[in-house]
Request: fold
Amino acid sequence: MAALFMPVIILVTGIILPQGESDSESKFAAMQQALSSWPARIVVLGVVFLSFIHCAHRIRHTLMDFGFRPMGTFLAVLCYGGAFAGSVVAAVVLYQM
Reply:
């Protein structure tokens, strides 16, 4: 799901919203206005969470292919724990906006 929604989020937040803005303060204001509603924040958090989980899964399986298969449980805890920690940080940042 992250592969479907991440390009849309990048398109909206990186290209469409700042379109026509010349200075960085107005771009920041446009982004802050777009993320001022809770449904938008929940969608962004969901996409960030899915992206972190996807990345953790790929890193875990890459490390297992490199020969760390006996440490599979440790790698799972490390990778998915890091993804969860990154999601918590993203939630805190979105909450404080």
